[in-house]
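Journal club prep — side note

Before the paper discussion, L.F. wants everyone to see what a predicted structure for a comparable chain looks like in token form. Sequence:
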Amino acid sequence: MIPLSWNLDHIGPLTRTVRDAAVMLSVMAGYDPHDPASINVPVEDYRLHLEDGVEGWRVALAQGIMLKRRIPKY
């Protein structure tokens, strides 16, 4: 896979569990001195709230015009 642009979707890490994904994110979110867009700030531990659950969360589903393709008709 070759990225065509920095702001287009790219392949990310594939993990077996949410915990593995949280560990990967903690590593990838860290400072990279070779990346000019990287900032040297503390990275939170994304594993801290894995056991909190999702009770009370709400899920929004896009419907209607939100799902229509935005391809111009010629």
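L.F.'s comment for the group: The CA atoms of residues 49 and 57 lie 14 Å apart. Keep this in mind when we get to the figures.
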